[in-house]
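Q: what sequence does this backbone want?
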């Protein structure tokens, strides 16, 4: 049997879905708690002077490498901003 069929039969979420759930929960905990160990690694919050439909919460810098762009903090900040 293939992976997806076995997961459906056993009622198990795919690894990617579980990983995304864990990352989102961790990032939410970091952004909500200023005393969290990872809070200081967050990019600066963006200060909007106008109410915009698609406002981004963080100022995401331009990255020269995919390794930095795909690191946990910046990848989740970009994902949550979109």
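A:
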């Amino acid at each position: 049997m293939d992976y997806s069929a076995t997961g459906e039969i056993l009622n198990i979420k795919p690894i990617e879905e579980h990983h995304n759930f864990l990352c989102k929960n961790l990032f939410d905990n970091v952004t909500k708690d200023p005393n969290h160990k990872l809070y200081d690694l967050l990019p600066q919050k963006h200060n909007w002077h106008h109410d915009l439909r698609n406002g981004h919460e963080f100022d995401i810098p331009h990255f020269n490498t995919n390794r930095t762009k795909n690191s946990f903090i910046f990848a989740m900040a970009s994902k949550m901003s979109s």
